[in-house]
Write a structure and sequence with these properties.
The chain is an alpha/beta fold. It has 8 helices and 5 strands. It folds into 2 domains: 189 residues, Rossmann fold (3-Layer(aba) Sandwich), CATH 3.40.50; 37 residues, no CATH class. A 5-stranded parallel β-sheet has the order 2-1-3-4-5.
């Protein structure tokens, strides 16, 4: 029992160190959230991929965005996990090469300005490197969520959050926390975007009313109920 608890204590100490270090990445994750929210609000899309446990993390990220994280009232967001379609993945791996399994999907689905989040504990998986290169080629932005940097994937990404621990378990656990922080920042920013959209529409309505001339009843200047405003919706 003593050896067991010693192992638990060691794991938790390492996890605590890595989580404390994640605090230094909070501003970067906030930048990710703000930028992705603006990208989505302009009709852009998030694509994401990973291998093994990181594939599960990629699908977790998409679930939070297409579903919801905290905000029950927001619309679904355009996000696609390139790991999710087993038929597509096996076809590409069989007909081409497993190293291209994500890169080919990036070329199929990503457009200029889209965001491609690549999750890799090692930062060295060949299919992740190929996906980052493909993202750059189509004008999308490859962002990396990795283990210790520098690593090959970090060098190919325009933005990076790296966990400075050489232990795959710890890196994956911290990645899950980073994903939750990222999603929280996205939703906070989208709330601001929706508010700005509603206010801009109201101001446009008032400007049109002023241009139309006097309104004895004041009806044209009366804000319409929120539910009658045009719905803000990402692609």
């Amino acid at each position: 029992m003593g050896a067991l608890m010693e192992g638990v204590d060691t794991h938790l100490r390492r996890l605590g160190f890595a989580l404390r270090h994640l605090h230094y990445s909070a501003e970067e994750l906030h930048w990710w959230g703000v930028h992705l929210a603006l990208t989505l609000s302009r009709g852009g899309r998030l694509l994401t991929a990973g291998n093994g446990g990181s594939a599960a993390d990629a699908q977790h990220l998409v679930g939070e965005l297409v579903g919801r994280f905290r905000d029950h009232d927001r619309p679904p967001l355009s996000a696609l996990a390139l790991t999710a379609d087993g038929v597509v993945n096996s076809a590409i791996a069989n007909d081409f090469d497993y190293r291209t399994v994500f890169a080919r999907q990036v070329r199929a689905h990503a457009r200029s300005g889209d965001v491609v989040v690549l999750i890799s504990t090692s930062g060295a998986s060949p299919n992740m490197l190929a996906a980052a290169q493909a993202a750059t080629e189509v004008g999308a932005q490859p962002w990396g969520l990795t283990g210790p940097a520098p690593n090959p994937l970090a060098r190919l990404c325009t933005r990076l959050v790296a966990v400075p621990v050489a232990d795959t378990q710890i890196v994956q656990e911290v990645h899950q926390v980073a994903i939750h922080l990222f999603c929280g920042f996205v939703e906070e920013m989208l709330t601001d975007v929706r508010r700005t959209h509603a206010l801009a529409h109201l101001e446009q309505t008032r400007a049109l009313a002023r241009a139309a001339g006097p309104d004895p009843d004041g009806a044209a200047l009366t804000p319409r109920p929120q539910e009658h405003l045009p719905a803000w919706s990402p692609r």
